[in-house]
C-alpha cells in the first residue's frame, strides 16, 4: 500500500509527536473529524479506548471493528430514546470516531478508537469497574463483547479506557495548559496531538489487504 510519510513536528500548525513518522492521509482525516465535531458541538467529549481479543485467540475476527462501531451507535440511539420516553431533556449528538488497527511486539492484533460526542449529551464515561446500563463504559464494553461474540462475563481486560477530556471550540490563549511533555496547549491542540498517535506508521501491518485505519464521514 502506498502512503505519504510525514516527518514534521507540526501539522497545520498543530503539534504531533516528533518521535514518530506519520501517515499524512491519516493526519488529514483526524483533523477533519476533530474539526467537524467541534463545528457541530462546541463542547465535545472525546475519549480513547483500546480493544483487545481474548488471550487464547490467535488472530483477529474479520469485521469486528465495524460491528463494534455499529453496535455502539445503536446503544447511543437506544439510550437517547429511553431518556426521551422518560421525559428527560436529551441533547442530540452525532457520533464521530477514528480508529486504527495495530500489532503489539507479540503480534497480537488490537484497536485504538477515539470517540467524539456532544458534551451536553454525555459529560463523563461512567463507572470503569462496574459499568451500568446507560453509562458509556457499559456501551463500549457490551458493544465489543457483541462484536467478537463473547459473553459479558468474559470481558475483563479486553477493553481499556485510556483517557477522556472535554474539547472547547474556542481557542484562546488563557485556556492553554502545560502537558506532560512541557508544552502549553489549548484543548483543540491537545486533542489533535493525542489523536495523532493513531496516525503513526509503526506497529501497523501494510499489504495484508486489511484496513489499518478508519473514521466517521459525517
Automatic annotation (TrEMBL):
It holds the Pfam family YagK_YfjJ_C. This is YagK/YfjJ C-terminal domain-containing protein. It comes from the Bacteria. Residues 38-216 form the YagK/YfjJ C-terminal domain. InterPro entries: YagK_YfjJ_C.
Amino acid at each position: 500500500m502506498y502512503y505519504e510519510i510525514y516527518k514534521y513536528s507540526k501539522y497545520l500548525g498543530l503539534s504531533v509527536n516528533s518521535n514518530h513518522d506519520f501517515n499524512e492521509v491519516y493526519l488529514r482525516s483526524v483533523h477533519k473529524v476533530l474539526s467537524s465535531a467541534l463545528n457541530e458541538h462546541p463542547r465535545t467529549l472525546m475519549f480513547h479506548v483500546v480493544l483487545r481479543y481474548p488471550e487464547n485467540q490467535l488472530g483477529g475476527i474479520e469485521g469486528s471493528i465495524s460491528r463494534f462501531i455499529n453496535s455502539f451507535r445503536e446503544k447511543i440511539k437506544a439510550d437517547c430514546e429511553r431518556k426521551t420516553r422518560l421525559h428527560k431533556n436529551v441533547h442530540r449528538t452525532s457520533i464521530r470516531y477514528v480508529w486504527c488497527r495495530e500489532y503489539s511486539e507479540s503480534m497480537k492484533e488490537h484497536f485504538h478508537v477515539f470517540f467524539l460526542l456532544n458534551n451536553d449529551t454525555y459529560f463523563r464515561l461512567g463507572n470503569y469497574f462496574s459499568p451500568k446500563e446507560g453509562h458509556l463504559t457499559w456501551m463500549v464494553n457490551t458493544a465489543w463483547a457483541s462484536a467478537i461474540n463473547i459473553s459479558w462475563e468474559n470481558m475483563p481486560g479486553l477493553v481499556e479506557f485510556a483517557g477522556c477530556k472535554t474539547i472547547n471550540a474556542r481557542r484562546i490563549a488563557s485556556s492553554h495548559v502545560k502537558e506532560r511533555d512541557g508544552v502549553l496547549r489549548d484543548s483543540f491542540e491537545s486533542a489533535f496531538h493525542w489523536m495523532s498517535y493513531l496516525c503513526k506508521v509503526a506497529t501497523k501491518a501494510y499489504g495484508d489487504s486489511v484496513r489499518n485505519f478508519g473514521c466517521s464521514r459525517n
